[in-house]
Task: structure prediction
Amino acid sequence: MKFYLPPQISRLAIAFAVFITLFLVARHFLVPETFGQYGHYRGASLDDNAMPVIHFSGQQACLDCHQDIEDLKLQGPHKGIHCETCHGPGQAHVVSGEAKDIFKPSGREFCGNCHSSNAAKKKETIHQVNMSTKNPGKNCTECHNPHQPWKVKK
Amino acid sequence: MESEKVRSSRRKFLKSAATLAGATIGYSWLKSTQFLVHGAEPEDKSLPWYGIVIDIEKCIGCGNCAKACKNENDVPKEPFFFRNWVEQYTVKNDGSVIIESPNGGIDGFKQSVPDDEIFKSYFVPKMCNHCAKSPCIQVCPVGATYDSPEGVVLIDEKYCIGCRYCVQACPYGCRFIHPVKKVANKCTLCYHRLKKNLAPACFEVCPTGARMYGNLRDKNSELVKFLKTHTTQVLRPNLNTGSKLYYNALSSEVK
Result:
């Protein structure tokens, strides 16, 4: 028996075939290679996100050279505070080893960032001072060793 | 009475329909086109599934986390867009609530209310909640934002078209358009650091240990132990976003 398709249907079928082929070809070139590898996203993007260089070196990198400072800190309430909390990002310093590549904090405002009194800070969590009445005009480090601030110079 | 011709064409139709259906199903089983059928990847149990805890009782509002985040992730200091930031909530004796976040808390806080008028006050550090069912992923029209196998919500900067849909969809206000790159930007939980076995920058610099991150799959991790022994809450639980950022001692004023 001869298979019979009306001409308007067969023309439509050809048009559909052309459109679907064009769509598949365009899709092949437009969809990135790794799209759908793990889910509805470009799989290679995971590597892109893992790429950026670090600026904070991490505490272990500091301890590799400065264990002596850590030993000072360990004796009091500043233990557990990482070097980069106050000294800022240290990766450049880790690479070069030069003192100019690390931030050396100074000034009342810097210490006050944590230690200025504020009703929102718990008394058990942090030692607080009233920055406007406590030795105004003087630098905190004139009396306090920055790595052992609980000890006051006589 | 059915003619032989009708019966044979029906048989032919059923045969071709079955072939077509079979071919479609077979095609959808091909691995390369699996995402056409379902978007979710099978869970890889060997990878960590990150969760975060922020202990409001320990936060002192020093803003180191917000500062470190900008440094680590090269987000320009100004204009004031943040991947993470700190808010100060002050409840006054008359019941009114003042919410402040000067420069995202990056330069620290000064209490603006006299002490005798304060009923209570506390800091709330905010960042991406890395939702398991995040609205920002659902609205992305091009698949440029996604949940990584580790449960970190990431952005594909090369694929993002900067349409800002996700910025509006995030109920926590954690997304912005990067002022230089002009594509969506947000906390990546320092994915580049996690992959190098380093702590994310904000966790690295927090002086009081108010922040904690860890593997939710590991029942012996510090994070899971903390969650077991404390009463924690996520922000806007009614939205069912599957948030994985848990706050300890969260007060009801926090939005």
